């Protein structure tokens, strides 16, 4: 039996589904830390996502788009120790002078952080005409909940799918939910309501 997909919530309520232009956006790189490239938190497809993220970052800078980097701080001795190599932003997407770094401790990068103020300072208040482009780790966690946080504040976030990655997790039935299935589910959740999802940076015009 063939299952016909229903309309997304975005389609039902008439939200814009067009990808933004990079030159009219702010790029938010979420938790692209060494945490996710080695050890207990290594993600499936992390290297490919880093390659895509580095290309996205290069294109955003070339288009004149402001860039904001997010890091998750889990504290000393954890895989998220931002003062140790394991928790540092990966060299391939390292900030350059003038690009702000926002520290968070919750999946939603807007919660209890300076992110909203930082975006306002960059001229990106909701309704300003500046869209948000999101990339980073993990798709099912901080990318999804930051997209939701942006949506809740009135922003129009867009997630670049190939610049995100996640990992296999225990499923509710006692089995294993493969990373590819969780990746697809997370991106589908985002595109149902919280934002636009594009397959790659190539889907975005400068």
How is this structure best described in words?
This protein has 206 residues and is of the alpha/beta class. The protein has a single domain (17-199), classed as Isochorismatase-like (Rossmann fold, 3-Layer(aba) Sandwich), CATH 3.40.50. The protein contains five helices and eight strands. Helix 2 links the parallel strand 1 and strand 2. It starts with 8 loop residues before the first helix and ends in an 8-residue tail after the last strand.
Helix and strand topology:
Blueprint: H1 9-13, E1 25-30, H2 46-62, E2 67-72, E3 101-104, H3 115-121, E4 131-137, H4 139-152, E5 157-165, E6 169-170, E7 176-177, H5 179-194, E8 196-198
Parallel strand pairs: 1-2, 1-4, 2-3, 4-5, 5-8
Antiparallel strand pairs: 6-7
Helix pairs in contact: 4-5
Q: What is the alpha-carbon Rg in Å?
A: 16 Å
Bulk shape = globular
* Whole-number total of structural domains: 1
Oligomer: single chain
Our count of helices gives 5
Strand order of the largest sheet: 3-2-1-4-5-8
N- to C-terminal distance = 42 Å
Q: CATH-wise, what's the superfamily?
A: Isochorismatase-like
Name of the CATH first level:
Alpha Beta
Count of β-strands: 8
**Major sheet:** 6 strands, parallel
Give the averaged pLDDT, no decimals. Answer: 97
């Amino acid at each position: 039996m063939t299952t016909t997909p229903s309309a997304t919530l975005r389609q039902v309520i008439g939200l814009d589904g067009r990808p933004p232009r990079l030159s009219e956006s702010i790029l938010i790189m979420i938790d692209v830390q060494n945490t996710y490239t080695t050890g207990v938190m290594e993600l499936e497809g992390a290297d490919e996502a880093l390659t895509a993220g580095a290309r996205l970052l290069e294109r955003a800078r070339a288009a004149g788009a402001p860039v904001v980097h997010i890091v998750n701080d889990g504290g000393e001795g954890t895989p998220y120790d931002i003062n140790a190599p394991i928790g540092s932003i990966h060299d391939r997407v390292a900030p350059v002078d003038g690009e702000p770094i926002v520290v968070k401790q919750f999946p939603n990068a807007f919660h209890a952080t300076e992110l909203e103020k930082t975006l306002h300072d960059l001229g990106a208040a909701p309704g300003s005409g500046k869209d948000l482009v999101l990339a980073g780790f993990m798709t099912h966690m901080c990318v999804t909940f930051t997209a939701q946080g942006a949506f809740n504040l009135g922003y129009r976030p867009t997630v670049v799918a190939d610049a995100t990655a996640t990992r296999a997790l225990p499923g509710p039935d006692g089995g294993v939910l493969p990373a590819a299935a969780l990746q697809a589910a997370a991106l589908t959740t985002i595109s149902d309501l919280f934002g636009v999802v594009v397959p790659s940076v190539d889907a975005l015009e400068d």
